[in-house]
């Protein structure tokens, strides 16, 4: 098994499968945490300051998770394209 077969393009290799399936799923969970925090901050618990602070924490962690995931995803795609084994469907 060569390195290119191990990494693979699209969903055939391990890194390709992680890059095309797992990372977007985790990104969706981070976005859901962000939306949940916004809902808790503005709509659900508008009068209670402790609950608003909890919603603010959800928003902060959701934004932080999305920024980290986007950075790592970009670095992995850049590394794969540099090595010449970019996933299929990549621009």
What does the model show?
- With 91 residues, the chain is mostly helical.
- It has one domain.
- Helix content is 77%, strand content 0%.
- The chain has helices at residues 3-7, 14-44, 49-82.
- The longest helix has 34 residues, at 49-82.
- The radius of gyration is 18 Å and the shape is rod-shaped.
- The two termini are 27 Å apart.
Summarize the SSE layout with pairings.
Blueprint: H1 3-7, H2 14-44, H3 49-82
Short account of what is shown:
It holds the Pfam family T4SS_pilin. Keywords: Membrane, Transmembrane, Transmembrane helix. With 91 residues, the protein is mainly alpha-helical.
Features:
91 residues; mainly alpha; 3 helices; rod-shaped; T4SS_pilin; transmembrane
Taking all Cα atoms into account, the compactness measure Rg is 18 Å
The total tally of domains equals 1
Number of beta strands: 0
Shape: rod-shaped
- Overall pLDDT metric: 77
Structural class: mainly alpha
User: Counting H and I runs of at least 4 residues, what is the number of helices?
Assistant: 3
What's the main sheet like? none
């Amino acid at each position: 098994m060569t390195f290119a077969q191990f990494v693979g393009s699209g969903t055939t290799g391990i890194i390709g499968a992680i890059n095309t399936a797992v990372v977007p799923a985790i990104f969706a969970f981070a976005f859901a945490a962000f939306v949940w925090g916004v809902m808790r901050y503005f709509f659900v618990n508008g009068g209670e300051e402790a609950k608003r602070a909890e919603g603010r924490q959800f928003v902060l962690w959701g934004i932080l998770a999305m920024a980290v995931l986007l950075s790592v995803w970009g670095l992995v795609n850049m590394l794969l394209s540099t090595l010449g084994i970019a996933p299929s469907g990549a621009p």
